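JOB MANIFEST
job_type = single_chain_structure
chain_count = 1
residues = 186
[input]
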Amino acid sequence: MHTRLWLVSHAATAAMRSGRFPADDPLDARGQDDAHAYRTQLDVPRDALVFSSPAPCARETAAALNLTADIAPALADMSYGRWHGQRVADIATDELPMLSAWSTDPHAAPPDGESFATVSTRVAQWLEQLADVPAVVAVTHAVVIRAALLHALRAPLTAYTRIEIGPLSRIELQRSTRGWVWWPAA
């Protein structure tokens, strides 16, 4: 069966704008306004299954987009462990070698956190469960979208540093008998 999947990154949070690692942040007024404005650009089938990361920012983005989403734990953001909610600048001062390794090596993880490789495995398993679903929308995080895109392209995990996904970005993946492919989002 053919599957179309739209992956949407959540709206920006105050923590993102202040250079902090995510900390289960809700959307602030600016993020809410951005998501409401983006609603007119999101054209997906009405019968699509809709999923969201469990994070407040993703759930609130889905709601602002007028989507009723089921929570999918596989779409959760990376666990940043001890860096949860910390300023990136502070981590760069205090733990630069570890931050450098994490930002270049997909198998490196923050202290007590999760590596990109682990996220990629989780996302790949979720994608493969969508084989019999014709249309899906998922509101999630940039790191999850990077992992999905690399899985679709069968690209090496080291390519994750070459993919930028901004707030309220969207990509489309389609699955057919030849597997997952990336389509330009219209």
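[summary]
The chain has a mean pLDDT of 94.
Strands lie at 3-9, 49-52, 70-71, 135-140, 170-176, 179-183.
exit_status = 0
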